[in-house]
Backbone:
């Protein structure tokens, strides 16, 4: 049919007073139908996307990727290895007494300190109620006093424990995974998700670290076992514990894309091969060898910290192996003396950690005035001279003793500056302990609104952050 005949029919219909829309409405109907189909497809796709997005595993994975890319972009503008904390009160020389030996208690008591409620860790080890007053620590003499050591009990050259259920960690979950492996040795039936539900309740938040005291608190509060946390360890102590039937958790430095912290569980040793056997949550295979020589430098990064889980009925046996280190106060003084000796012998990043260890142990002993001087030297004099690729810029993710020392010394602005530098470097506000300490410093400085914001952030990241929640409730209770 030609175009002319169509127009003739239209003219004829119009002349009769009728409107013939057949030739034009059909294309319109098709257009509307196409729009309707497209709308329905978009609606179905959108509903499907929303459903999938709100499915927790998918959401958490996507959110993790988005966080990673956001952090990468942030670090382009704020390279974390270039962010420095320089205390305004720099110390030219450290008091000689600080670097002198620390006198250990003469009669260590085999008592284990009860762990506090689950909370951000202010101190990596529990302190003894029988510690001398800080003035006794300050009045050290110039000549180092040797730390007495007990005669070691002969142990086999080769020894390995069995019965540990190996677990590969989910993202940043080495603390819960390693703790679950250690608990499994004693017949505990949970796994890393059981521990994570308490210590890292929001996996998508990506809490960077579970503190040693949080792990200890979990053992005391959620199992029928006990846990001892000590510092200043050495390979001989680790071997003695393993030979006595106690697997040992240690925290050490690790490197992937820069320095980080990492927990592993030691379950055996072999003197003929000069290595420990470890259960490492980053590695699928069990019994991963860790060379004696290589362990020391990485273990130093966490003050040679070790955690022993044990049944209450074997406490006396454990304390016999620990010897004088069964007393937490003695252990802190001995670790401070060990760190003091390393400060004199080391350089670079190793010296930074030796200073940090000394400051940490002094903080635990209550010698705050000395501790802040040590931390000043670590941050102002040593850290800037470490090569950028080797700088442990994540150290405050794991070890918050510097916050505590500056706070207890009344240097609140230094707490705030150090926290600001730490949060700027991470590029993702997920450090509950940093928010907690900055909140305390802001509160002490009179900035209650800022403190409330920080406490709210800490509680949001971890509802088990008991001190932050208590401080938040206290300040909110003061509001008119």
Residues:
């Amino acid at each position: 049919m030609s175009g002319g005949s169509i127009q003739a029919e239209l003219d004829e219909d119009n002349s009769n007073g009728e409107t013939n829309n057949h030739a034009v409405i059909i294309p319109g109907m098709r257009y509307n139908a196409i729009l309707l189909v497209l709308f329905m497809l978009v609606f179905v796709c959108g509903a499907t996307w929303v459903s999938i997005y709100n499915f927790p595993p998918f959401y958490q994975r996507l959110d993790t990727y988005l966080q990673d890319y956001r952090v990468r972009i942030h670090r382009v503008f704020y390279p974390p290895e270039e962010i420095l904390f320089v205390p305004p009160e720099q110390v030219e020389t450290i008091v000689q007494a600080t670097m002198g030996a620390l006198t250990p208690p003469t009669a260590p008591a085999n008592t284990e300190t009860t762990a506090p409620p689950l909370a951000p860790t202010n101190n990596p080890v529990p302190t003894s109620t029988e510690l001398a007053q800080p003035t006794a620590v300050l009045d050290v003499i110039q000549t180092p006093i040797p730390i007495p050591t007990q005669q070691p009990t002969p142990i086999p050259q080769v020894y390995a424990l069995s019965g540990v259920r190996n677990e590969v960690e989910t993202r940043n979950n080495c603390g819960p995974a390693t703790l679950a492996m250690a608990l499994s040795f004693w017949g505990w039936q949970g796994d890393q998700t059981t521990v994570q539900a308490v210590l890292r309740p929001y996996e998508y938040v990506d809490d960077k670290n579970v503190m040693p005291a949080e792990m200890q608190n979990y053992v005391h509060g959620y199992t029928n076992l006990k846990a001892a946390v000590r510092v200043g360890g050495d390979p001989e102590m680790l071997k003695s514990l393993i030979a006595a039937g106690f697997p040992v958790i240690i925290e050490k430095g690790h490197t992937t894309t820069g320095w980080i912290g990492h927990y592993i569980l030691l379950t055996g040793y072999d003197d003929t091969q000069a290595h420990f056997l470890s259960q490492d949550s980053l590695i699928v295979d069990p019994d991963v060898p860790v060379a004696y020589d290589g362990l020391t430098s990485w273990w130093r990064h966490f003050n040679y910290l070790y955690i022993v889980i044990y049944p209450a009925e074997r406490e006396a046996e454990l304390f016999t192996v620990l010897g004088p280190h069964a007393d937490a106060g003695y252990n802190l003084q001995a670790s401070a003396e060990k760190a003091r000796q390393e400060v004199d012998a080391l350089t670079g990043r190793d010296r930074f950690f030796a200073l940090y260890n000394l400051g940490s142990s002094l903080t635990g002993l209550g010698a705050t005035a000395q501790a802040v001087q040590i931390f000043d030297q670590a941050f102002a004099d040593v850290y800037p001279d470490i090569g950028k690729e080797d700088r442990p810029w994540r150290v405050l993710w794991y070890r918050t003793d510097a916050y505590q020392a500056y706070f207890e010394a009344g240097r609140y602005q230094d707490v705030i500056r150090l926290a600001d530098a730490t949060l700027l470097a991470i590029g993702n506000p997920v450090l509950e302990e940093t928010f907690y300490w900055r909140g305390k410093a802001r509160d002490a400085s009179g900035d209650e609104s800022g403190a409330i914001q920080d406490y709210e952030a800490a509680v949001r990241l971890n509802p088990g952050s008991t001190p932050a929640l208590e401080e938040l409730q206290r300040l909110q209770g003061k509001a008119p």
Summary: The domain at 77-478 is CATH 3.90.70.10 (Cathepsin B; Chain A). Residues 1-25, 91-145 have pLDDT under 50 and may be disordered. The two ends are 86 Å apart (CA to CA).
